[in-house]
Design goal:
157 residues
Length: 157
């Protein structure tokens, strides 16, 4: 398991084990692959080693996006479409699996999507950054991000 103070553990806090365990296992496996790439001294990726904590955070965010936020984003897009069809006056509950989401829960999901989107915008991350199959593709995304000049200096979200 990742360290207790690791961002992946913070992001997993309160999530069901069926989501948390696979996400943490993938985090550990990909982190081991990254260390293996760095230990083989692949010059192209060695510049990223000094930013290991940032790479870990980006990896945690990527997995969180894949396991959680991507699905929540899809669900919020769906219920926004349904609410538009029903008109903004009516209360529209949506059932996902065995859970029935009322307006309040839908608003919490929407707030999560908005907050995550603000973080992505602040750090110039697109949803494509989070979409990778191989760990080497993730490192390529990180390398591209490393080479991107910083335009924003404001730290507020």
């Amino acid at each position: 398991m990742p360290e207790k103070s690791s961002l992946i553990n913070i992001l997993c806090y309160g999530l069901p084990g069926g989501i948390c365990h696979p996400m943490c296992n993938e985090f550990d496996a990909r982190k081991a692959q990254i260390k293996q790439i760095w230990s083989k001294q692949y010059q192209k990726y060695m510049v990223l080693e000094q930013y290991e904590s940032t790479i870990d955070a980006l990896l945690a965010m990527s997995l969180f996006y894949r396991y959680v936020m991507g699905h929540i984003d899809g669900a919020t897009s769906f219920y926004k479409s349904v609410n538009k069809l029903n008109g903004s006056n009516g209360e529209c509950s949506i059932k996902i699996g065995s859970e029935i989401l009322d307006k309040s829960q839908q608003n919490h999901m929407l707030a999560s999507v908005i907050t995550f989107s603000k973080i992505m915008k602040k750090y110039q991350l697109s949803s494509n950054f989070f979409k990778f199959k191989e760990t080497i593709d993730f490192l390529k995304n990180c390398l591209n991000l490393y080479k991107t000049p910083e335009y924003e200096t404001d730290d507020s979200i």
